[in-house]
Amino acid sequence: MIEIQLLNEKCVKCGACASECPSGVLLRHGEKAMPEVADTANCIGCGHCVAICPTGALRHSLFAEEMVREVNRELLPSPEAVLELIRSRRSNRSMTACQVPEKVLQDMLEAARYAPTAENSRKVRVSVLRGADIRNVEDATMRFFLRLARILLHPLVRPFTRTFLKDLYKQAPALESFRRQWEKGERPSTCNATVLLAFTAPAGYDFGWQDCNLAYQNASLMAESHGISQVYMGFVQTACKLFGQKRTAKLLHLPQGHRLYALMGIGVPAFKYSRYTVR
Ligand SMILES: Cc1cc2nc3c(=O)[nH]c(=O)nc-3n(C[C@H](O)[C@H](O)[C@H](O)COP(=O)(O)O)c2cc1C
After folding, report:
1. 13 partner at 20 to 30 Å CA-CA among 1, 163, 276, 277?
2. Three-class DSSP category at 6
3. What is the crossing angle of helices 131-152 and 245-252, to 10°?
């Protein structure tokens, strides 16, 4: 049971907590009235009330004092810095075998945790894969697409593919290049990433796609700020969709009952882009 308390001696009756509460748990009746705590069963635990209170007059049972921090505005990047980071981010696919520092990974997971989620439900989980687990994902993906290509590019089927599956047909040369790299022991579909991050949410949760991909983007920009490459693994994700839930869960070590909604490959880049192109 959530408890919210307003300290009489500290409250300046500004009403900010009541106006910011998205669930109508804090109500204010009149300009100079102290906000009233209504049914806390509706509280979504977003912490807006605690964060907005200018005098620290609000006690919330979900947020012990050490869980409420001052914003260090001196640390905040300028709008220009944020925009330059966003503009200069690239899906840099030239990843080396060097390990991504643990600190970077932890910062990325922290950034993912701070992404908005529907009703503050924070159901997103991130599975971290390395080494042989990534190799298994790579091999399963490549085998799947090469088998599919053998069928779709068979001389008897090819005219049909060319006419009716134009987008797929356009991918044939890229797949052929992937095949050559894969046969040399490289991991083209996972871009030789040294870590895969699988963003998941419970099956049946309505906002899995949205929550996971917002978390993805936070983590992606965090990685970029550390100079670490990140690439969206759409190719692998498409294979996983066709593998089905059970096989995907096993391959990516997903939490019980979770579905894959975004997949990121990360690694230390071989080189950095020094330009961005105008969009
Ligand atoms: C849903 C989605 C799927 C993607 N799948 C892949 C992929 O499988 N392999 C890859 O190398 N890049 C993939 N990308 C990266 C895009 O190709 C890339 O974002 C786009 O070309 C723009 O380039 P940039 O990210 O460097 O700005 C994917 C991106 C998205 C959003």
Report:
1. 1
2. strand
3. 140
- Contact of 60 with 29, CB cutoff 8 Å: no
Q: Look-up: residue for tokens 């260090």?
A: 72
pLDDT at 171 over 90: no
pLDDT tens digits for range 249-279 = 999 999 999 999 999 999 999 999 999 999 9
Which residue's alpha carbon is at the smallest distance from atom 21 of ligand 1?
Answer: 91
Q: What is the pLDDT of residue 120?
A: 95
Condensed to tens digits (0 to 9), the pLDDT of residues 23-48 reads 999 999 888 889 999 999 999 999 99
Q: Hey, how many other C-beta atoms are within 10 angstroms of the C-beta on 234?
A: 11
Please list the residues that pair with 223 across neighbouring strands.
none
The best mutation among 85, 87, 89, 91 to test binding of ligand 1, ranked by most ligand atoms within 8 Å of the C-beta, falls on: 91
**Overall fold of domain 4-67:** Alpha-Beta Plaits (3.30.70)
Does this model's pTM top 0.90?
A: yes
- The reply to whether ligand 1 has any atom less than 6 angstroms from the CB of 93 is yes
| CA 265 – ligand 1 centroid, Å | 11
Domain boundaries, the chain: 4-67, 77-279
How many residues comprise the chain?
279
Q: Which residue has the higher pLDDT, 159 or 108?
A: 108
Q: Please tell me the class of the 77-279 domain.
A: alpha beta
- Is 167 a residue whose pLDDT tops 90? no
Cα 34–Cα 2–Cα 125 angle in degrees, nearest 5: 125
Report pLDDT for 145: 93
Residue 161 in contact with residue 237, Cβ under 8 Å?
Answer: no
Cα separations (Å) of 216 from 109, 115, 150? 9, 9, 33
H/E stretch holding 278? none
Instruction: Please tell me the distance from the alpha carbon of residue 3 to that of residue 5, in angstroms, as a whole number.
Output: 7
